[in-house]
Amino acid sequence: MIRSIRTRAGRAGPGRPGGRYALGAVSGLLAAFAGLAVARLAAAAVRPEAAPLTAVGGAVVDATPAAVKEWAVRRFGTDDKLVLTLGIGAVLAAVAIAAGLLAVRRPAAGTALAAAFGALGATAALGRPEAAWQDALPSLAAGCAAAGVLYLLVRAIPRPRPQPRPQPSGAGPPGVMDRRGFGRLALATLALSAGAGYAGRRLGAFGDAGATASRAGLVLPRPAVPAPPVPAGSDLRIPGAGRFITPNQAFYRVDTALVVPRVDADTWRLTVHGEGVSRPLTLGLPELLARPLVEHDATLTCVSNEVGGPYAGTARWLGVRLADLLREAGVRPPSQGGRADQLVARSVDGMTLGTPVEAVMDGREALLAVGMNGEPLPFRHGFPVRMIVPGLYGYVSACKWLRELRLTTFAAYDAYWVRRSWAQQATVKTQSRIDTPRASAEVAAGRVAVAGVAWAQHRGIARVEVRVDAGPWREARLGVADGDDTWRQWVWLWEAAPGGHTLEVRATDRTGAVQTGERAGTLPDGATGRHTVTVRVRD
Questions:
Q1: This prediction's pTM
Q2: What does the DSSP assignment read for 274-286?
Q3: CB atoms < 10 A from the CB of 308, how many?
Q4: Which residues lie below 8 Å from residue 24, measured CB to CB, with a gap of 6+?
Q5: H helix intervals, 258-339
Q6: Residue 495 CB-density burial (10 A; 0-12 exposed, 13-18 middle, 19+ buried)
Q7: What is the per-residue pLDDT for 70?
Q8: Do residues 109 and 76 make contact, with C-beta atoms less than 8 angstroms apart?
Q9: pLDDT score of 68
Q10: Cross-strand bridge partners of residue 200
């Protein structure tokens, strides 16, 4: 890229405005690259979350209206964080080019613009929930490096020749580097920046080594209360439908963390304190694992899940009963005279989720989970400890990378998502989904297996029905129930006639409540409506 632009600049003439501005744009991009590389190196010494792109991205996520976030989740799915990072990178590139162009005519102003972007990153880093003053250092270092590199590169751009007298080939005016010299300086900048970025990456990996080793060396104790085997017949094994137990690598992930926290289990601590806590607790992972562990199958659902959406999954969780821990701390639920009605969970990255104390202590298997499908929690799913509360959407119950539990009231404190227009409390709504045939699929006439899943955690699914083209409802065959906290698979055999058809599904939970057909979006407490797919049946 540098060589091609330099060649074009050379055709325009090293001292002509077009050539100088082209080299100015290149200078701006190289300065930005150098700044990011230096920031990565500095962030390795501070913490990954302090890197400028991550800090600014986190600030953008926090400031984005809830409706826009929901659109991003629907449009990009779990790639929303990648799209955000690429968008910020594109804006940074545009600012870098602008700074380079400005610096050609006004070097002080151009370098000031480059430095200002570093100051913006520092401000964003200091505004993060768990920020310390050191978090500003990577962005400040990036701004200084970018400004310095831009100044040097722009000073090296050949200037207009003061007089037309012959010059030695390739030479610029006295005291001004020629364009070959600019190219050498640009390549040196590129090489040094790449080296700094690589060193930052390696140092970051070295910093993560303790967390990686702590997870690799963790042996989970056998559960004191093991879950029974998944009943035969729970997984109907219908081609095109998912498995009953979702593999860890396929389990959905929806959160605001642009960088997955990698917590060292050896240094991890959990504190329990707040209103109604007569015996505050501080626990390390060994102390938590020394308690009786419970194994439980449960389906998790994200409140961002549209009707028929993919953000639901079932796993076998291993953990400590949260209610037992709270009782040990002296906590009583509101129904027994307890002072606190909200349990605020805080993660290592500052995320807060608020859960009703009553729900946590009403007898359901609310867990501080340490294991998922027979292994320690994956980093992306909350290692070393996360919360699981069956029957509640994840944004009010499923805090990952947990470090603090604070007892308070809903009147006194609004957790992260509540401050962004979501409801304080949100029970999972009864939902069902058609997994096969897919929307717009073409199938052969004759018998077709229509299959999917339905869920109503903590209530259970009693019945699933399917209809074609708004006709009569037909009852589907259910998979065997694995308790009330998991989804149930279902299948209905359809005698498909040629033509276009619309399939629709609804579920009834064990309280007798039928899934509503009234469509509502995910805000403020979960989507409603029935999933439909349109298919084409060929002769």
A1: 0.86
A2: ETT-SS-EEEEHH
A3: 19
A4: 100, 101, 103, 104, 110, 154, 157
A5: 285-289, 322-328
A6: exposed
A7: 78
A8: no
A9: 83
A10: none
